[in-house]
Amino acid sequence: MIKENIIKGVKMAIGVVAAISLARVLNLEFYTTAATVLIVAMLSSKKQSLKLSGILLLAAVFSLGLASVLFLLLGFSLPVFALYIFIFTFFMYKFDTKSAIITNVVLVMQIYSLETVSFPILLNQMALMLIGVSVAFVMNIITVDIEAELLEYCRQVENLFESIYRNMGKRLNNEVEADVINEDLKKLDQLLKQAKKRSYDYLQSFYLEYNDYYLEYFNMRSQQYYTVMRMQKFMKQDFLDQTEVRLLRGFTDQFADTTRELNTSKLEKERLEEIKYHFIYLAELPGTNKQLQNRVALHQYLYSLENLLELELNFISKYKNSSRLESLAQ
After folding, report:
1. Contact 262, 328 (CB under 8 A)
2. Confidence (pTM)
């Protein structure tokens, strides 16, 4: 993050110098205004800056046209300028383009200070706007590649899930306490929040390409996290040594292996269906209250496992041709 902030600061500084220099070379009035436009255009993400640049330019046409009409008809007075502010900001808020207010009001204030409207002046103001957004577009091409950071987040998340799943299997055999799993879940929660924020930053670092792989990956992992959190409610009791426990323990350990490398397949789905068939048709009916409580908890555990599996299979199916999926599986 420090490196990114330094690069953003350097880009902003170079962009300001470039915009002002270009405006001066073209002998534009109020040339420093180009820097104001550039700063506003660069405050958004790379992907959003394209839309923002279009909004700024279209709003400038409307703003300068509106101001020209008002000043020519009603004169250059403070009440007329206030009327312009009212009408312009009303439409900017109405169309959710308030980001264009500051730069365009500055351009109109300069016309107000000159107390005259002419084609060269309007052309000057539009040129300032165009220079600002153009230089911002060029400067935004330079971005920091954070994919290596996202891959590291992926590995950390997978390590935690593997640990959680293995401890869940052990919990079925009463080998660990529930607190052991809860500690990993706390770490996972914080890690996923950071990872999703950074994956959104990565998504916004492209002009046209839509790279949502990492964002969708961490969203999938977050859904799995919430499923695992719900599973903890029925894993607090001591489980009996029975066939159903051994079946679920074996599948949980197997899932821990496949989820780490994202190579879960329909074979796991078929295996889970076999376990479901056993629970419904082959398992002996509970004979005691303790066995009944165990069976209810194991049924909930089973269907939660199915949800975890479906989430992963859906993600793998969606991105099965992605090179990034292959890199995570290595």
Report:
1. yes
2. 0.75
